[in-house]
Amino acid sequence: MRDEVLRRVRAAVATLVLAGLLVAPWVVDDYTAAILARTLALGLVGVSVALLTGVAGMPTLGQTAPYAAGAYASAVLGSQVSDVGVVQVAVAALAGATLAAVTLPLVVPARGVIVLMITLAIGELVVTVLGRWRSVTGGTDGLAGIAGVRPFWGLPVLATDQARYLYTLVVVATLVGAVLLLLRTRAGVLLRAGRDDEMRLRASGHRVPLYLSGAHVAAGAIAGAAGSLLVVAQQYISPADFGFDTSALLLLGVVIGGTASVGGALVGAALVIAVRDWLFGVLPGHAPLVLGALFVATVYLLPTGVTRARRPRPVPAPRPPDVAPTRDRDATPELRV
Amino acid sequence: MNCLLSAEKISVRYGSLAALTDVDLCVHDGQRHALIGPNGAGKTTLLSVLGATTRPQRGTVRFVGRDVSRLGPAARARRGINRTHQRPAVFATLTAIENIEVAALPRTIRRRRWSPGGTRGAARRTAAELLDQLGLSDLATVPAGHLAHGQRRQLEIAMALAGRPRLLLLDEPAAGLSATEVGRLAELLAALPRQVAVLLVEHHLDLVYALCDTVTVLRDGRTVAAGTPDEIRTSPLVRRAYADGVS
Amino acid sequence: MIAVAAGPNRIDPYVIPALDGVAYGLLVFVAAAGLVFCFGVANILNLAHGMLYAIGGYTAAAVLDGSWASLALALGVGVLAAAAAGVLLAGLLTPVATGNHLTQALLTFGVALAGGSLLVAGFGPDDPQVLVPAALDGSVQVAGHRYAAYRLVFIVVATALAAGLYLTVRRTRAGMLVRAAVDDPEMVACLGVSPTRIRVGVLAAGGALAGAAGVLGAPIIGPGADTADTVLLLSLVVVVLGGLGSMVGTLLAALAIGEIQTLGVALLPSAAPFLLFAAMAAVLAVRARGLALRWAAT
């Protein structure tokens, strides 16, 4: 019953938000358009968080790492390679995917909450590196004055905030559409199966680490692409854009949107970021306090959904089979998809 | 000799407890082989060793003549050993048909023969057929987590079959099933293609004697007897083995 | 051989950072012990752990006035305040106790956010000054170099604390329970101890440890707006590298991190930002299999 109500509320809110996002460029002023563009970029990162957390069962607090990699790659390299937006998005996605690929051995063998810890650590360390690598990233001062972008060959450089917002909207819509399509293929059902019962998936002969690696790299590419959008939206980036606070807010947004729902993640993440911005504008001193309360309230009111701790991998040292951990089996599954 | 699956001198210890000691087992192609014995005999441990979820201290497992001792569960499944578990393992948020579909999907990226609907379409057709065979077609779109215990057990057997195994390891498939369900299970197992060998751990002795052509008896981690159901049924050794057990 | 004998200049620049590394590492160990404890025993990922350390640090800044009495007071108040915050966390976690780790992460993060905001509101956004007792404020001769007296004393005290922790875990009944719980958390429930009690106890103890570290370590990692995040990150890296199996592993991991942050930076200043990351990557890549096995129980 409660699930039904929740579903309808989410659907209604999502429709409203999406309608608003479509109408925005013609309705809002420059400043708001820029903010919305940045919010959309973060929403896309939220999509990558949902892909890992909800669909693959790898809860993550570290998607800001490929996001940052993509942003800096776009700002530093992209502008040297080409000023075409699509190319910069591709460069950024590649950077994000590369970082994800490099961190695979750290993340893929881990299960459950350990993934949260490791991804948090990775995210923080990447941001620290960015802050200190002054020669390339400008350190904590960030990079400003980034050149404008032409969305596609033959089109003029994006000159207004509204134009930049539209560009962001189109890219996000395309990428989210691609993710949704991909999840309808066997990749989607295999990831969800592994999330539900990894051991059963292995028992059917599937190479689970391979699938998890694929999901991780794909999520890295998406977050990286979002980084390029951030650069276009703000025309300025600094390590402060990629802190651990952002990761936690994204996770909150994903949970609010329905952990395994990709569309919900976009809307949820965008909403949470918007609320944060609004709070910081309205209550500059006490915004974190209210946000903290929001976290606690969400946890009390909403089921956090899909992240079942995966069953442990087979242990080479023998264990009595009937004493093997079974608590995950008995946990009542969250049946939302 | 020529066993499809052979376990040689398998020993498993947990600290000072010897779960299995020097157990040998041979399952032939197409055989219906039962593993019985009182509680604590080590039957499930042996099945775990064969399914690679437990690594023995000593011993070798060979499949189709090759040593598979070092292979994990996924690798063994790809070679053709599929199993079910004591507690039916299903993908709770996936529908029944999706469960079997996953099990039927190819595990490698090698190019397959083209079929309508692509690989997922082919897998879905296999899944639909298997569901039909089980008589569970009207549950196709129900999330597996919502299924009753007996239905989940049947679903897991279907998932094991979907992998086109050469050897099926079944861990107490009749446990927790009603009489009708046991009957249906017996029909399903009897109707299995001849090329699929079955190794069955069971307490339900009627099912065992009706279905199987070979029985191995374990007690206290050792093999006590092996032979045809008739031989086992009348063996005094076996009776003594069970006398102290709670079977 | 000849190089070492002929030139004290060779090893000189590194003795101080190396000692610093020991001090830093020991501090990280005591600070992280609370997180290891929470996670290993009660399977709680406490993202407010850094905040608990910061509570200790801010208490030290507020109470310390250069006298020994104030140091004792700061320690007492800091430990109590942080432990109380831990109990509060346990209370907040109780209604969602059956939730998964995502729940805990979000809830504890929310508390950290709110708590951090309150601390900054109370003490201001700048790093407050910490006044150590005058006797410890100077420097001392060590192997021909001057070294901060406080850090030397800290090394001694922290070592004693670590030894105390080790003995408690190894020799007392409570310690045995803790070790058993780390091996198999479900067993603890079977022993008839209420999970709520365990949660409260574990978070209080973890808080107390973090608070003590915050007070004593204030001159090394002092209170400030970033402290909570820094300490949380370092503690997480210790847990990830050191594993949950043994205190010795945790200690070694902490010392390694301390040395990387100090000696490592001194030896390879241009690689400084990457060192911790690279070290973590190297250790994990080698241990991934072993860690996964240990975590199979969690």
Automatic annotation (TrEMBL), chain A:
The chain crosses the membrane at residues 9-28, 34-52, 87-107, 114-133, 165-183, 210-237, 249-275, 287-306. One of its GO terms (molecular function) is branched-chain amino acid transmembrane transporter activity. Residues 314-323 have a biased composition (Pro residues). The keyword Chloroplast does not apply. It comes from Micromonospora lupini str. Lupac 08. InterPro entries: ABC_transp_permease (IPR001851), LivM-like (IPR043428). It is found in: Cell membrane. The lineage of its organism: Bacteria, Bacillati, Actinomycetota, Actinomycetes, Micromonosporales. Keywords: Cell membrane, Membrane, Transmembrane, Transmembrane helix. GO terms for cellular component: plasma membrane. Pfam families: BPD_transp_2 (PF02653). It comes from the Bacteria. CDD domains: TM_PBP1_LivM_like. Residues 310-337 are annotated as: Disordered. This is Branched-chain amino acid transport system permease. It is a multi-pass membrane protein. Residues 325-337 have a biased composition (Basic and acidic residues).
From TrEMBL, chain B:
Residues 5-245 form the ABC transporter domain. Keywords: ATP-binding, Nucleotide-binding, Transport. The keyword Nucleotide-binding applies. It comes from the Bacteria. It holds the Pfam family ABC_tran. CDD domains: ABC_Mj1267_LivG_branched. One of its GO terms (cellular component) is plasma membrane. The keyword Signal does not apply. GO terms for molecular function: ATP binding; ATP hydrolysis activity. This is High-affinity branched-chain amino acid transport ATP-binding protein. The lineage of its organism: Bacteria, Bacillati, Actinomycetota, Actinomycetes, Micromonosporales.
UniProtKB/TrEMBL annotation, chain C:
It is a multi-pass membrane protein. Keywords: Amino-acid transport, Cell membrane, Membrane, Transmembrane, Transmembrane helix, Transport. One of its GO terms (cellular component) is plasma membrane. One of its GO terms (biological process) is amino acid transport. It is found in: Cell membrane. GO terms for molecular function: transmembrane transporter activity. Its main location: membrane. The keyword Nucleotide-binding does not apply. The keyword Membrane applies. The chain crosses the membrane at residues 21-48, 68-93, 105-124, 148-169, 200-221, 233-258, 265-286. InterPro entries: ABC_transp_permease (IPR001851), BCAA_transport_permease (IPR052157). Belongs to the binding-protein-dependent transport system permease family. LivHM subfamily. This is Putative branched-chain amino acid transport system permease.
